[in-house]
Write a structure and sequence with these properties.
The chain has about 220 residues and is of the alpha/beta class. It contains eight helices and seven strands.
Amino acid sequence: MFQRRGIPRATVHHPVFARLYARCCGPAADQRLGLAALRDELLVGATGRVIEVGAGSGLNFAHYPGRVSEVVAIEPEATLRAAARTAAAQAEVPVDLVPGVAEALPVKSEAFDVAVASLVLCSVRDVRRALAELRRVLRPGAELRFLEHGRAQERGPAAVQWAVDRTVWPLLMGGCHTWRDPLGEIRAAGFEVVRVRRLKVPERGPTLPSSSMVLGTARRPLD
């Protein structure tokens, strides 16, 4: 099933960030920040074969509904992939963890019913190439589910994002960028956005550079 030959396996390496993320950003933090409910909303109604890019430590795995027949979870960071194995073993649906990067997915074209991009487009090296790959592996008419943080609509927070992206944020946060425009990039990649809503996470409390988020569904056209 997998086309592993020629695919880089160790092109992402953030061991310090990955260890901190795996320890500090677990299910309890998800509940506290309101992300657990957003993951439920992201994945509700998903069915068939699913590919998830940038699966991290596997926080989405517990939220997949039973109608999902298989999740192929792509994660390039070895430390996070190791942490995700525990979550995969506890999931109610079959999860196959695969090393790989979003820009060169080691799977066949038009093989999936749903693709999931969850807090990953901020950190991929080439957003357009990653989205082109997601479109390639989805069947015509299939869905892209996305939960991403990105550029704020308000001028002040957006200016802060622009500044931190050019200084310390990517270095401290494992390559994350806060000023990217995931919704615009999804549309530019040829997906039809079916629904979207904008969020602030956490809903209450201080606004962080990563607080502005979008949650929604897009579709690969029937071509």
